[in-house]
Design goal:
The complex is a heterodimer of chains A (102) and B (167). With 102 residues, chain A is mainly α. Chain A is 75% helix and 0% strand. Chain B has eight helices and no strands. The termini of chain B are far apart.
Chain lengths: 102, 167
C-alpha cells in the first residue's frame, strides 16, 4: 500500500538530485533545469500533504499553483538573463562569469 | 493496487530521468529527459487525485517551460561544450547525500496525522471556489498575475538588444 511516506521520500530524492545538479553543473541552462526539478519535488510533497492530511481542503494544491506561477516567472527572467549574459560574454559557462567574485 | 503500480512506474521514470538530466553530457538530450520527468510528475499528481494540477503541469511545464528551455539551448552555444562538472563535485555529493539522509530520517520517523477521509476526486470546481471567492485567495491570485506581467516585461527588456549603444 502506497502511503504518504512514499511520496515524501520520492520528493526528497528528486530534490537532492536537483540540488546536486545545481551545485555541480557549469552550464547555466542546466542549472535552471535543476532548479525546476527542485521546485517539482516541492510540489509533489505539497500535493501529497494536501491529499493525505487535509483531503477535503485542497490547501496544498493551492500552494502548488502559486509555486508554479513563481516558477514560470523565474524561468522567463532567468533565461532572459542567460541570453543577455551569452550576448555579452559569448559563453554561458558560469565558471568564466566571475566579474563579481573576489 | 493500481495506485501502487502507477506510483512505482512513475517514481522509477522520474528518478531515472532526473539522474539523466544531471549526468548526461548532451544538453539537448538532458532537456528532452527533463520533459519526461515533468510528465512523470504529472502522473504522480494523478495518483494523488489532483486532476486539475496534473493538467496544469502538462500545459505549463511540458508545454511552456520546456519550449523556453529548448529555445535557450538553441540560442546559446551550450550543445558544443556539453555540461561539464565544476570542482565542487565531491562536496556537492556529500551535501546532497547528507540532506537526503536527514530528509528521509525526518519523513519516516515523524508521526504524520493522516486523515481517514478520501481525498476529493473532482478538484477543479473546489479549487476555483477557493481561489476566487471573497474570503479565499483572491489577493494572492491578483499578485501572481502582476508578478507574471512584470516578469514578461522584464524578460523583454533584458533580452532586447540595445541599438543605441552599439553605434
Amino acid at each position: 500500500m502506497i502511503g504518504l511516506t512514499h511520496y515524501l521520500v520520492l520528493s526528497a530524492v528528486l530534490f537532492c538530485i536537483g540540488l546536486y545538479g545545481a551545485l555541480t553543473r557549469r552550464n547555466a541552462v542546466i542549472i535552471l533545469m535543476c532548479i525546476e526539478l527542485m521546485l517539482n519535488a516541492v510540489n509533489i510533497s505539497l500535493i501529497a500533504f494536501s491529499s493525505y492530511i487535509v483531503p477535503q481542503l485542497l490547501t496544498g494544491q493551492i500552494f502548488a499553483i502559486f509555486v508554479m506561477v513563481v516558477a514560470v516567472a523565474e524561468v522567463a527572467v532567468g533565461l532572459a538573463i542567460i541570453l543577455a549574459i551569452f550576448r555579452h560574454f559569448k559563453d554561458i559557462d558560469i565558471d568564466n562569469i566571475n566579474l563579481l567574485k573576489w | 493496487m493500481g495506485q501502487a503500480v502507477a506510483f512505482w512506474i512513475m517514481a522509477v521514470v522520474i528518478v531515472g530521468a532526473a539522474l539523466a538530466v544531471v549526468f548526461l553530457r548532451n544538453v539537448f538530450r538532458a532537456a528532452l529527459l527533463l520533459i519526461l520527468c515533468f510528465i512523470g510528475v504529472a502522473g504522480i499528481y494523478i495518483t494523488l487525485s489532483a486532476d486539475f494540477l496534473a493538467a496544469v503541469q502538462i500545459l505549463v511545464y511540458v508545454g511552456a517551460i520546456s519550449v523556453l528551455i529548448i529555445l535557450a539551448i538553441m540560442m546559446t552555444r551550450g550543445i558544443q561544450k556539453g555540461s561539464p562538472a565544476n570542482k565542487l563535485r565531491i562536496p556537492a555529493v556529500i551535501v546532497a547525500a547528507a540532506l537526503l539522509g536527514i530528509l528521509i530520517y525526518a519523513v519516516t520517523t515523524s508521526p504524520w496525522n493522516v486523515s481517514s477521509q478520501p481525498p476529493l476526486t473532482d478538484t477543479t470546481g473546489p479549487l476555483a471556489t477557493q481561489l476566487f471567492s471573497e474570503n479565499g485567495y483572491i489577493l494572492p491570485v491578483l499578485t501572481g498575475a502582476t508578478l507574471l506581467l512584470v516578469a514578461i516585461l522584464g524578460a523583454i527588456v533584458i533580452t532586447r538588444e540595445n541599438k543605441e549603444n552599439k553605434k
